[in-house]
């Protein structure tokens, strides 16, 4: 049974829905409850299965929703279309000391690519500071994420830049972790810099299957040494890229991360922008149950120890339901954050909507040094990405969870499916994440999966008894 009628106004057809709204029931796999979702505003309610008829027709649920529908719709439109860039994924070098099997950057650049000099890096940050001073409120502090390839190859220039611009930006470093020694960790932690590392397994045998140096040697032992140096530092996290090579180990990986006292991790399905990623992509029907098992294990560990390991990509899906404006990641919304909330800067100064596009030269919007940021943001290349909305993608446009998922990722869709207006690569995984999130809400477990203080400063839009 479905209460959903696909929008057809673009074809000149119209349906009289009366007072609406169109509510879609979703079986969330819970013994007593299911979810009702109004896709356009992302409004939802959990209702008892034996009360579905009353809830979906008349009663306090619909009446109170109608009273707030306009405000909720405006909030969703602002979230989707009202943002402006406030962060930069800054690539200070094209080179990397690793040859990971799924990397989204071309191998030639990672071997012999260009690198910013210290003076160029300082010049770039100066130009970015001037741009954000014109576009953001005076109290806003934009973020710079030194990103890969491997930023620590250009460590001296990065550290000098951090000290030179500490009052102008919030800084973070996303690194493979192999070049982090005690001196580097002391520098970063003493300045409160967020540090992200990558580790793809609970043991070396698993982690080293995909993350190796150019000689074919695994590097997970070096990463674990870096994680020991960071133990107890609240602003560090780990990305685990999920592939066919570590899929079965996901619950054990969660156990290992928790034992290492990692505050936040991401269990990111491999991006399929490059052929290597596509070759290592697990099937949705195999990935979804292992991912759910890993989330279950994180909940068990929290109950056993009182200490959270936040799985950030799932936490973001959960926030998309309970507090859309509190989302921390902007991949899972349409348009996604690429070119809209953030952009990427290459080591040559070229500006792209997102790091995933760095290997796709047709999406370069211009050069920071010769063209400036504003021109790149207004370029046709950026417009192609920022204009990609779930409402124009089939079958996503009629999906009940389209504003919880957003059909990511445009770079992946372009490279793997041949066009931006194609669904993302992990549709079934998003469906199961949403069902799982609703089950946890029904059981009152949402806080166990979210950062402490996630709801500070948030206002409740609509409460249903």
Features:
disordered C terminus; ten-stranded mixed beta sheet; 18 helices; alpha/beta; three-stranded antiparallel beta sheet; 465 residues; disordered N terminus
Question: Can you offer a commentary on this structure?
Answer:
The chain is α/β, with parallel strands linked by helices and 465 residues long. 38% of the residues lie in helices and 12% in strands. The protein is built from 18 helices and 13 strands. The strands form 2 sheets. A 10-stranded mixed β-sheet has the order 10-9-8-7-6-5-4-11-12-13. Strands 1-2-3 form a 3-stranded antiparallel β-sheet. A hairpin with a 6-residue loop joins β1 and β2 (33-38). α4 (118-135) runs parallel beside α5, α9 packs parallel to α11 and α12 (312-322) crosses α17 (427-442). The model is unreliable at 1-18 and 460-465 (pLDDT under 50).
User: How far is it from the N-terminal to the C-terminal residue, by CA?
Assistant: 25 Å
| Major β-sheet annotation | 10 strands, mixed
Helix content: 25-40%
Taking pLDDT < 50 over at least 5 consecutive residues as the criterion, the unreliable ranges are 1-18, 460-465
């Amino acid at each position: 049974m479905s209460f959903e009628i696909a929008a057809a106004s673009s074809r000149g057809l119209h349906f009289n829905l009366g007072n609406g709204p169109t509510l879609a029931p979703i079986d969330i796999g819970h013994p007593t409850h299911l979810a009702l979702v109004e896709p356009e505003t992302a409004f939802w309610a959990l209702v008892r299965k034996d009360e579905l008829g009353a809830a979906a027709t008349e009663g306090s649920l619909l009446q109170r929703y109608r009273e707030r529908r306009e405000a909720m719709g405006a909030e969703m439109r602002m979230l989707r279309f009202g943002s402006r860039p406030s962060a930069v994924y800054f690539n200070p070098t094209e080179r990397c000391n690793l040859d990971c099997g799924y990397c989204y950057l071309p191998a030639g650049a990672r071997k012999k690519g260009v690198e910013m000099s210290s003076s160029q890096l300082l010049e770039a940050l100066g130009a970015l500071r001037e741009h954000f001073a014109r576009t953001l409120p005076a109290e806003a502090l934009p973020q710079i994420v030194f990103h890969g390839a491997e930023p620590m190859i250009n460590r001296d220039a990065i550290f000098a830049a951090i000290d030179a611009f500490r009052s102008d930006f919030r800084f973070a470093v996303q690194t493979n972790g192999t070049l982090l020694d005690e001196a580097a960790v002391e520098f970063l932690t003493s300045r409160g810099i967020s540090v992200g590392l990558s580790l793809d397994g609970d043991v070396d045998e698993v982690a080293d299957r995909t993350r190796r140096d150019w000689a074919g040697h695994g590097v997970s032992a070096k990463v674990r040494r870096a994680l020991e140096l960071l133990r107890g530092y609240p602003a560090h996290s780990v990305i685990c890229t999920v592939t066919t090579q570590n899929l079965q180990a996901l619950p054990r990986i969660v156990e290992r991360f928790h034992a290492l006292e990692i505050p936040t991790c991401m269990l990111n399905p491999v991006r399929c922008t490059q052929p290597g990623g596509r070759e290592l992509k697990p099937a949705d029907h195999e990935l979804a149950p292992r991912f759910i098992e890993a989330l279950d294990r994180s909940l068990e560990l929290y109950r056993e120890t009182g200490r959270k390991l936040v799985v950030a990509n799932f936490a973001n899906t959960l926030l998309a339901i309970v507090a859309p404006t509190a989302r921390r990641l902007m991949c899972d919304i349409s348009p996604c954050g690429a070119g809209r909330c953030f952009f990427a800067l290459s080591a040559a100064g070229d500006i792209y909507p997102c790091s995933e596009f760095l290997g796709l030269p047709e999406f370069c919007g211009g050069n920071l040094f010769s063209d400036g940021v504003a021109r790149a943001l207004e370029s046709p290349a950026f417009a192609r990405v920022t204009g990609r909305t779930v409402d124009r993608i089939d079958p996503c446009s009629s999906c009940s969870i389209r504003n919880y998922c957003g059909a990511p990722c445009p770079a992946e869709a372009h490279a793997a499916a041949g066009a931006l207006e194609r669904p993302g690569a992990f549709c079934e995984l998003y469906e199961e994440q949403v069902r799982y999130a609703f089950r946890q809400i029904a059981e009152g477990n949402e806080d166990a999966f979210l950062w402490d203080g996630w709801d500070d400063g948030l206002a409740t839009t609509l409460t249903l008894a």
